[in-house]
Amino acid sequence: MDFNEWVLSLITFLPLVVAALVIALPDEPSQKLIALVGSFVPLGLIIWVLTNYDYSGKGSAVDKDGLQYAVNQSWIPLIKARYHIGIEGIGLPLLALSCLIIPLCIVYSWNHFPEPHNPKAFLALMLILETGMNGTFISQDLILFFVFFELVLLPMYFMIGVWGGPNRQYASLKFFLYTMFGSAFMLLGFLALYFKAGNTFQIHELMANANSMISPSTQRWIFAGLFLGFAIKVPMFPFHTWLPDAHTEAPTQGSVILAAVLLKLGTYGFIKIAIPILPEGAKSWSPVIGALAAVGIIYGALGCLAQTDFKRLIAFSSVAHMGYVMLGISTLTSFGINAAIFGMVAHGFITGMLFFCAGSIKERFHTLEIKRLGGLLKQMPKLGWVLGFASMASLGLPGLAGFWGEFPAILSAYEPHPSLSQSLFRVFMVVAAVGTVFAAGYLLWMYQRTAFGEPKAEWDGHHFDDVHTEEWAAWVPMLLAIVVLGLFPYLLFKITDVPVQSLVEHLNKALGS
Amino acid sequence: MSVLAVFNTGVLSNALAAEAAADKVSDGFLLANSWWLPVMSFVGFWAILLLAKRINVKNAAAYMGIAVIGVQFAFAAGAVVQWQQRTAVVVEHAESQSAEGEAHSTASDTTEAETSDETHAESLGAIGAASGFSLGSEEGEVVKLRPSVERSVSWYRNGDTDIRIGTHVDGFAVAMLFVVAFISLTVHVFSREYLRTDSRITHYFAALSLFTGAMLWMVQSATTLGVLFGWELMGLCSFLLIGHWWEDRDNTDAALKAFFTTRIGDIGLLIGIVILFFAGGKTFDIAVINERALNGEIRQWLCFVAATCLFAGVIGKSAQFPLHTWLPDAMAGPTPASALIHAATMVVAGVYLVARLYGVFWSGFSIHAGGMNLGALVGSITLVMAALLAFVQTDIKKVLAYSTVSQLGYMVMGLAVGGWAGAIFHLVTHAFFKALLFQASGSIAHSGSHHSFEMERMGGLRKYMPVTFATFTAGYLALCGVFPMAGFWSKDEVLTAAKTNGYTWAFVAGSLGAFLTACYMTRTYTKTFFGENRLHLFHDDHDAQLVNTGHDAHTTHDVHVGHVGHEGAGGLEGAGGLEGAGGHEGAGGHDDHGPHESNIWITAPLAALAVMSTVVGLLQWPKFYAFEHFIANITFEETVIARWGSPEFNLTGVAIPSSILGLLGIAIGVVYFKVFNHDFGLVKRGGIFALVHKVLKNKYYLDHLWTGVVIGFVKGPLAKAAYWFNQQGLDGAVDTAGRTSVGVSRWVYRFIDQGTVDMFANGIGSTTNNLGSGLRKTQTGNVQNYAAIFIGAVGLAVLAIVLFI
Fold first, then answer.
1. What is the spatial distance between Cα A127 and Cα A17, in angstroms, rounded to a whole number?
2. B156–A493 C-beta distance less than 8 A
3. Cα A489 vs. chain centroid, distance in angstroms?
4. Burial of B457 (0-12, 13-18, 19+ CB in 10 A)
5. Distance of alpha carbon B173 from its chain centroid, rounded?
6. Which chain A residue shows the shortest CA-CA distance from B268?
7. CB-based contacts of A117, cutoff 8 Å, min separation 6
8. Do A444 and B256 touch (CB under 8 A)?
9. CA distances (Å), origin A438, targets A297, A350, B317
10. Distance, CA of B630 to chain centre
11. Cβ of B256 and A392 within 8 Å?
C-alpha cells in the first residue's frame, strides 16, 4: 500500500500511539514534548492532504463514492462491518479542524494544566480524543463510525470529571449518560438500516439502497432514532441541557475541544448519515428540525441574557449558533448545507476562542462571575481586545468567519428544498434573522460588563499578566483563521461544495424533484 | 491564494458596460482600481495599530492616518477628474425613447405617470439594448453617457451560483468617494490637534482609518452583499468610536445602543437582501436587481416587501423615526468622529442604500404614484419631529445631532418622492456643512468653553473665535438654506421634487422643516456667538457643574483628569488643547483661560469645509445641473428620471417661498431668542407649552419605550423566564426521568432480584450484592440516575430491534 492509503489511518491512530508513549514516558518535560510533537504530525499530514486533495472531485484520485484516500478492508466479517475509510469535502474541513485544535490545546496547556495537574493523563486523554474525532470524520462504515463516535465520550468524561470545576461529577456523568442515551437509539437506527437495507453498514451502499428498500413510514422511525442520537450530540433544543453544565465544569481545553469539534459530530452525522441514507425520513423530519433550530436560536440567546457566569453564557451561545447550523441543514439545499459546514468550522474557531479567553480570565481571577469582572481592557488590554474580536466574530460580523455560517443559512431558509413548506421555512428565516440581533445583544452586553468600565475595587493592587506567549501561540492561528475564512470564504466553500452538490442531487433524485 | 491576485475585470450584467467593453472604452486607471481605496485604509488600520507606538514620533498615529487619507483624497479627486473626462458613449437618441425622455420636463405629473404603464414597460424593455439615454435632451439630440466601470471577482461558488464581489464605479460612487475622502481628511487633520493628548490616540486613528475604508468600500460595491460588509463594518467602527472613552458607563451605553439599534434595523436589511437575491435570479448584483425591479421581472408586491424590509435597515442606520434615538446618544464619542460618522457619512449609509437600490424602492413604494408612501411618510415625520427636538437641547452637539436626524429625513423623503438626484445632492451638501458645524462646535469646546458643549457656557464667542465664528456662520447659513449657500440648492431640489411629483404632505412637512430648521439654528447661533460670554459664570463651581451635566461624557471625563490621572487621563477630549486641563502645562490650570481661537490644525479644516459649504451648491445651477449630469445613472435615466425628471428649478413655486420661510425662521429666531432672550419663556407660563416642552425634553418617550420597556423586558423577565424553564422544565424533566428510573430499579433490585432471582442463584447473587453495595457507596444519586436511564434506553433499544425484525 502506498502512502495515499496510509495517510488517513496515520492521522487517526498516530495520536493514540503518541498517547501510549506519553503514558510510558517517565518525566513531565518529555511527556509534554512528545505530546506536542506527536500532535503536530497529524497536523502536518492533514496539511499534506489538503494540498494534494482533488478539489474538483472528478480526478482519478476520487473513487466511485466520491472519496479520496480511501481504504476498504475487511474488518468484522461476521456482521459485514468493514474498515472503510476515506475523506470527502464534508468531513475534510472538520478533520482539519480537529487536527489543528488538539495541538493548539496542547500548546495552550504548556503552563496552564488545570488542577489536579497530572499532565501525563491530561495530554494522553486529549490525544485519545483526537483519535476518536478524526476517526469519526473518515469512517465510511456505520459500525466503525459508531466505535469512534463513542470513543470520544470516555476521554471527555474523564477530562470533565477529574480536571473540572466544583460540580464536575454531576456534569461529567450527565454528559456521558445523556449522549450514551442518544447513542443507544442511534445504534438501534444503524441496526435497523442493516437489516432493512441489504445487510450492510457501508454508508454509500446504504445511500444507494435504503431509500428504495425502506418505506417512507419506516424511514421516519429510523430517522427518529438517528435524530435522537445526533440531536443530543449537537445539542439541539430541547436536548441541550447537558451542554451548559459540561462546559461550565470542564477545564478550558475540554471546553474548547467540546465546542470546537465534539458538537460537530452530531451535525456531521446529520449531513453524512441520516439525511443521505434516509431522504424520505429527512423530508418528514426537516420541518421539525428547522423549528427546533429556530427555537434554539432565540432560546439560546435568552439563556445567554440570563447568565451571570461568563462561561455558561458562552455555552448557551453555542446552542444558538448550532441553531443556525441545523437550520441550514434542515433546508436540504446546497446553500444551507454549505453554510452549515462553514458554520461548524467557524463556530469551532470562534467559540473555541471565546472559551480560551474564558479560561485565561478564570486562571487569573479565579472567577468567571460577570459581576466581579469589569474593566478588563484596563487590567489586560490585549486579552480584552482578543475577547472583543472573538465576540464580534461570534455575533456574525461580516468579514469574519461567523458571517458565512449565519447569513447563507438565513438565505437558504428563504427557498428550502422544493419538497418542504416554503412559508414555514420563511418564518424560520425571520426568526433566525431576529436571532442576529439577540446575538449582538448578549455578546455586547457581556463585553460591556466584563471589558469596559473601571476594574472592580476588589482587584485593587492585584497585578494581572496580559496574554502569555503560549497563549498567543495557541490563539494566533485561530484568530488568523477567523479573519482569513471571513474574507476568503471560497477557501472552505470550494471544499464543501462538490460533495454537497452531489448530496443535494442525490436528495432530488430520491425525493423525485 | 490572494483574491486580489485574481481580481480581473469582469463585467457584471450591465448591458451598457458590456457594450462599453466591446467598444474598448478605456476605463481610466483610478476608476478601474478604486478598490485600492479601501485596501489602503485597511493597511493603514493595521499599520497604525501595530506600528504607530513603535515609531518614535509624537502623534505618529495621527500622521500615519493623515498620510493615508491624504493619498486617498488625491486618489478620489483624481477619480473625479477621470470620471469627468471619461469617454462617454455618444449615441443618437432613439425616437421612441426620447418621446418619454423629457428629463427635466416640469410637466411630469401624477396623471401622466399613471397613464403609461405599457410605455413604461416598453421603455424598460429597451434597457437591455440601451445604448443611449436621455438627460435633459430634446428629441433626437445627441446625448452622452459615461458607462460605469465594473470589476468583479468570484467570491465563492455554490453549485452554479457564482457569488461575486466587485466594484461598480459610476458618477454617484465617485461623488461619494470624493465627499467621504474630503471630510475624512478634514476630520483627520482636526483630530491631530483635538485628540493630541489622548492616550488612546492610536486606537482612535486606527478606527478612523477602518471606518473610512468601510465607507469607501460600501459606496463602490457592486453587490448588496458587499454593501452589507461595509455597512456592518461601519457599525463596528461607530461602536468603537462612540465608546472611545469606555471607562464611563454612559459612553459604553451609547455605543451599545448605537450598535444594537442599527442591528434591529438590520434584520430587515438581511431579509431584504435575501429576498432580492432570489428575486433577482440568484444574484447580489445591484445593477441586475435594479433592472429587474424596474422592468417588472420582480413582481411589484415582492418589490414592496423587499423595499419595506430594506427600509427597516435604513430607519436604523440613517436614524429615522422611530429608531433615531441612538444618534443623539452617539454624541458621546469624540467630536471629530461624530462629525465624520454620526453626521456626514455613515448615517447617510441608509440614504445611500435607497439611492443605490432605487429601482427596488421606485417600484416597491410605487413612487410614481404620488400622494404618499412609506419612505415619504417616515422621512417627513422624522424631519419635523427631530427639528422640534432640537429646540429644547442645551448641548450644542445635541442640537446638531437632532438637526442631522432632521436632514436625513429630508434625504429619505426626497428619495421617496422621486427626487433621486436632488436627495443625493442634499446628501453631499449636508455632508460638508454638517461636518463643518460639528467641527466648529468641537473647536468651541476645545478652546472656548472648557470642553463643554453646554451652550450656557458660551455666548459672545464671535469676538474670541473669529475664524470659528466665520466658518460656523457659513455652515449655519447653508443649513438654513439661505441663497446662495449649499443648503439652499439641495433643499430646494428636494422640495421641488415633492411638490412637482404630487407629494403635497411631504412638501408641506419639508417647508415646515425649513422654517423650523432656520429657527432652531438661529437660537443656537445666537446663544453661542452673541450676547455676553457666560463662561466665567461657571468658573467657581466648575466641578459641581460637571457633575450636574453628567450626561455630557466629555465633561465628566474632565473630572477624572483632575485628580485621578489614570491611563484614560489624556482621554479627555481636547485636554491638551487647553493647556491648563489637568494642569499639565499652564501654571494656573483651567480657570485662568478665557475663550480663544483654536490653532491652524483646527481652523484650516473648518475653512476648507466652509468654502465647500458655500460653493458646492452652485454645482446645481439651473440650466447646467452639473452635479446631476455627473451622477447620471443609465438604469435610472432610462426609467425613473426619464419619466419624472429631476424637476426644474422652480423660482416662484418653491425657491422664493421656501427662502421666505427660512428667512422668517431666522427672523423669528432672532427676535425671540436674541432680542427678547426668551428661550423657554413660554414654557414657564405652563399649560400646553409646558406639556409640549416636557414631551420634547423626554424625546417623545421613545427612549423609555425602547430601553426601558422593550429591552428591559427581554433582558429581564423574558430571559429569566426562559432560563427558569430551562433549569426547572427541561433539565428538571431529565433529572426526574433519572430519579424515577432509580426508583424503579431499586424496587426491581429489592423485590425481584433479591426476592426471587437471588433464591436461585445464591452464590452469584451474594457476590453481586456485595459488589453492588460497595459501588453504591462511591456513587452519588445522580450516577444512579443516569446509569438507570442508560440501562432503560438499552432495554428499549433491544425491544425495538426485536419488534423491527
1. 9
2. yes
3. 18
4. buried
5. 17
6. A433
7. none
8. yes
9. 9, 17, 18
10. 24
11. no
Gap between the Cα atoms of B284 and B294, Å rounded: 16
Q: Which residue is it, cell 444519586?
A: B781
Taking CA–CA distances from B231, the nearest residue in chain A reads: A398
Of B176, B12, B40, B16, nearest to B88 by C-alpha is B16
Is residue A409 classed exposed, middle or buried when 0-12, 13-18 and 19+ CB atoms within 10 A define those classes?
buried
A399 touches chain B (CB under 8 A): yes
CA dihedral of residues A72, A75, A80, A83 (deg, nearest 10): -40
Chain-wide mean pLDDT for chain A? 90
Sequence letter at residue A461: G
pLDDT score recorded for residue A460: 81
Q: Which residues of A touch B264 (CB under 8 A)?
A: 437
**Phi and psi angles of residue B150, each rounded to the nearest 5 degrees, phi first:** -115, 135
Contact (CB, 8 A) for A486 and A403:
yes
Q: Which helix (DSSP H) or strand (DSSP E) does residue B573 occupy?
A: none
**Are A378 and B567 within 8 A, CB to CB?**
yes
Are A247 and A310 in contact by the 8 Å Cβ rule? The answer is no
Cβ–Cβ contact B3 with A under 8 A: yes
B800 touches chain A (CB under 8 A): yes
Helix (H, G, I), strand (E, B) or coil at A513: coil
Q: What is the ipTM of this complex?
A: 0.92
Distance, CA of A290 to chain centre: 19
**pLDDT(B123) > 60:** no
What is the tens place of the pLDDT at every residue in B653-687? 787 888 888 888 888 877 777 666 655 555 566 67
The model's pTM is 0.84
- For chains A and B, CB pairs below 8 A equal 171
Q: Which residues contact B569 (CB under 8 A, 6 or more apart)?
A: B199, B560, B561, B575, B582
CA nearest neighbour of B113 among B694, B796, B644, B723 = B644
**Residue in A closest to B798 by C-alpha:** A188
Look at the block and give the residue holding cell 462504515.
A141
Residues B36 and B216: their CA atoms lie apart, in Å, by: 10
Nearest to A173 among B228, B277, B782 (CB): B782
Query: Which of B266, B720, B782 has the CB atom closest to A306's CB atom?
Result: B720
Cell numbers of B306, please?
A: 423587499
User: CA–CA separation, A224 vs A210, rounded Å?
Assistant: 15
Closest by Cβ to B236, choosing from A307, A397, A429: A397
Give the count of beta carbons closer than 10 Å to the beta carbon of residue A284: 18
Q: Which of A454, A472, A494, A497 to mutate to test binding with chain B, by most B CBs within 10 Å of its CB?
A: A454
- β-pairing, B89-92 vs A81-87, is unpaired
Interface of A with B in 109-168 (CB under 8 A): none
- Asked if the model's pLDDT at residue B125 lies above 90, the reply is no
Asked whether the beta carbons of residue B252 and residue A392 sit closer than 8 angstroms, the reply is no
Using a CB-CB cut-off of 8 Å, the residues of chain B touching A491 are: 1
Contacts of A371 (CB under 8 A, 6+ apart): A308, A449
Q: What are phi and psi of A58, to 5 degrees?
A: -125, -10
CB pair distance less than 8 Å for B722 and A299: yes
